[in-house]
């Protein structure tokens, strides 16, 4: 288990070092118990430049202990006043529904998945915001969900420059 944490830390450090156009890139480790339905994941970030647009990505990591082929979740962008400025109902596919083969990139019995949920998101005011993630599987505890997180990255322009 110790070596897995070192590898995860190194991957996060490498990803963070390579992204200078990132407002936030944070992953929250979940307990051995799994993702409790009542536990929302909140990731705070600061917007200073309202002239840019951003893509919002969600990263999920699950183990073979996860009992379903998919995961329903609700991502939200919340402003400093607590108002939801963007919301979606999302579905992540962890396994192929017909073959049962795992999707995503794997390391041992763990698989990582990344989804772009909001593209070209513009913030009208500078200030504090948060990404909220909540599981929507109608199961109190989702075993096998190891971590969940989000990154807010400047949308690439059509000429390839940010």
TrEMBL record:
Keywords: Lipoprotein, Signal. PROSITE patterns: PROKAR_LIPOPROTEIN (PS51257). Pfam families: GldH_lipo (PF14109). InterPro entries: Motility-assoc_lipoprot_GldH. Residues 1-17 form the signal peptide. This is Gliding motility lipoprotein GldH. It comes from Aquirufa echingensis. The lineage of its organism: Bacteria, Pseudomonadati, Bacteroidota, Cytophagia, Cytophagales. The gene is gldH.
């Amino acid at each position: 288990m110790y070596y897995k944490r070192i590898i995860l830390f190194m991957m996060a450090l490498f990803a963070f070092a390579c992204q200078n156009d990132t407002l936030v890139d944070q992953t929250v480790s979940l307990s051995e118990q799994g993702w409790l339905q009542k536990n929302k994941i909140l990731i705070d970030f600061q917007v200073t430049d309202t002239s840019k647009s951003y893509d919002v990505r969600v990263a999920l990591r699950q183990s073979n202990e996860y009992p379903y082929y998919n995961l329903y979740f609700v991502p939200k962008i919340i402003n400093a006043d607590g108002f939801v400025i963007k919301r979606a109902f999302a579905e992540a596919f962890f396994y192929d529904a017909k073959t049962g083969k795992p999707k995503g990139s794997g390391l041992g019995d763990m698989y990582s998945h990344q989804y772009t949920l909001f593209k070209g998101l513009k913030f009208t005011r500078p200030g504090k915001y948060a990404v909220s993630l909540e599981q929507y599987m109608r199961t109190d505890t989702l075993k096998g969900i190891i971590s969940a997180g989000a990154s807010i990255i400047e949308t690439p322009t059509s000429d390839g420059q940010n």
